[in-house]
Structures
1.
Amino acid sequence: MALRTRKVSKVPQDLTKAPYYQAALSMNDLTVIETCTHTEGKKGTMLLEDHLLLFVLDGKYTVRFGDQEFTVRKNEMVLLQKSIVVEFEKSGEEESNYLLNYMMFFLKEELITEFIKMADLQNAYPAAIVPISISAVNDRLVSYIESLKPYFKEPEQVEDGLVKVKLLELLFDVANANEKFLFQFFMLKRKERKNITEVIEENITNPVSLNDLAYLSGRSLSSFKRDFQAIYNTSPLQWIRNRRLDMAKELLTHSSLSVTDACFSTGFENAAHFSKVFKERFGYSPSSLK
């Protein structure tokens, strides 16, 4: 069983901190475009606060959401909707020394709405929103990516207006390359609350806070707690802790995982705290099961 990374990075804001940051373009002091180069072995978990469009230029970028896994390879792009938590793994091919080179675009709903209005697009048929979509990159998009590279040499000299124009150009090129992505844009700008049960089940083993879960469900913290209480008849903090403890007990009983690994695999971030609450719930320490 693969262990999850305990740190959840909120992106794009955390990506401008070491060790993630490579080069970035900003608009209104917010990171909107990043270019990154890594070698084999980088893993992590991120909570998407904006819609993310990622292009792989070399290597491969693997994304896991729930029980689904998606691998994005050279000259492919992936669109991820915001308000989800995904695991990622960065790797490359042996013949290219496991180099991974990619570019990320963070798309706010306001920008997507402006693009749809500017392009005078009509939603011709209903489409279901897909959390993660992958498509090939055509020559037009390859040329677009190349056109951005000079801007990263002096990012502080690039005006907000120019960054916005380049983002709108990107959306036109993406829509031209893949109609499926075009109709996903219509869905991305819809603001709908998510089902609380689905959000909890998708993130039960992710070390996310109640604030994060409220955000992922499209609610304020107070609304999330109220709606959770109505469904589960208990507080979210208590219910989630007990569910994680039950899962940890199953792992310790039926697998070879250590106490520390079971702790981290079920969303706890501190082994000492895990052992304490485990004993409070079951009456014996987790180490006694091993």
2.
Amino acid sequence: MSLLSSSASHRSLTPLVSLARGAASTPAPDFSRLPGARAPKTPAATTPRSLRIPTAKAARTALTHCVELVKKHDKASYLATLLMPSTAQPHIFALLAANVEIALTRDKVSSVSTTAMYRLKFWRDAFAAIYKGDGLVPQQPVATALVAFARSSSVDLLDQLASCRQRTIGDRPFQTMNEVYSYGRDSTGSLLRLQAHALRRAAGMDADASTTASDAVIDRLAEAHAALTLVRSAGPFTLRRVVLLPAELLVGEGLTPDNVVSGKNPEKLAAAVQRLTEMGAKRLQEARDARSSVPRAERAALWATAAQCEHVVKVARAARYDIRSQLLQRPRPLLAWRLLGWRLTGGY
């Protein structure tokens, strides 16, 4: 069966979707049967408000929407999730779809300021409604999927996915590499932790357990991803006269944002991009060197991000650190086989 077959993935998820709700006549579905579910820490009577559980049809429709959304906008994560345990897939597809919705804020609104802030607030309010009982859950497919399949996720990490992007609205460049790394830990790092949580539950492990060592690996990989994403996106952003490359790297080479947009001093720009690329490559290697500290069941959470980082490092070097090179925009060939190899070897 081809790894690229989305219909196959939908069939494998069908039995799990049916668990999103008990029989139609059951007034209070038993969520202990859901993959990754756990008993609530407080009695149901003391919770702020009980959620309206989606019907089986609504849950299936929402999950299908999530799968297609991830497939369209995050192909690496889509393929990686197909290789994860089937019991974790609905949970993770719901999380990935929420991340896509948040990440696409810039492209879905005409303004990158006020309108974008309101859209991100919509998601923060949705997370509060789902996980804290604060307000009403919006009638939106990704929100429905979170209710049906990801009720055990950390609301703090989900909220951080949105709040960290609020801080970057307005196309403001990063001033230092520490700012880049902090953004990576809050954005990519939060998503990786959410996936690791889901994978621990699917493996029958303590879902809330994590080690300082494995957290450090996630931080290094998230920092690498933040740095290397700037490398890959720098060229397209210059077409919009936007420069997000860290100011400290540009100043170190005697460059200004105008130099980057105009293409002047290409040798100095290439030197700055090389420094950024190698910083990302170093953190990727540090994450890989500490592989033994990450339980094998959790390593699947790192596959997609590691594959993306590895690809950018390779093509940036091949392009001689030219941000306008089309090599940086091409998808990674044989990605599915790389992910399959890691599944068999326990790597990332």
3.
Amino acid sequence: MSKAARTLLGMLVFGVLGTVVAAEGDPTRRADRLEPLFLNAATGFSVSHYELRTGVYYRWRIESDGLEEYRLLAPALFRESWIDQVVIEDKEVKPFGLYAVEFDDEGVIDVWFIPQRPGEYTFYVEGLENQGFSGVFVVK
């Protein structure tokens, strides 16, 4: 079978399966709320380990104390997830993809997503990994 034929077959199968999943209900109707992540200049992350499942809709609340500028990265997790929305001060952003979120001041950011692939995915604040600002998502 040619590469083009395999690609077309994969697209057709994915389309059919996607239709079946959509017919069973909207997975984004109700999100599982993860334990909120607090970014604290003195202690680092409040949570350093999350256990998730593929195909489950999650809301991840991230809250900054505002004492430092934080650039929170989770590039592999975000690349392997469907990002539904990012909410900042009650304003929704519908991104095509996501690499990082950044806090310049105190505030809250909610990321709504569905992990697509199992694996271990790190999240961290760039440059502060050795000061308590690193963690891992284990997706099963």
4.
Amino acid sequence: MIINLFSKALETPQTLPEPLIKANRLFIGNMESILIFQMNALKFYLDIGINQLRAAAEITDLASLQDFCKRQAEIAQTVQRKLMNDARIMSDMTARFKTEMDHLTQATLEEALPKAA
């Protein structure tokens, strides 16, 4: 039954409304940007974690342990700055997407309302 539904839909070629096509493209472009950003951020955090594990494995005496502990504050500050910057970037990306969708919606309404009247 579902196969018949899709077959019938494919038999009669129809085009999607232009605003829907634009919204889909905008959504996909935004999702792609966000995913690329998140993958790069994840790599950064994983690299820090792996480097920390390697540094911990190099501890052989009290002096190297003290050195390792001293570096933890610097690394924590680096991670904190990166997290704050990443949150700001994600917020900016979301705001930009919202603005673009608002413009698309407004343009679609301005085009559709005179036709409806």
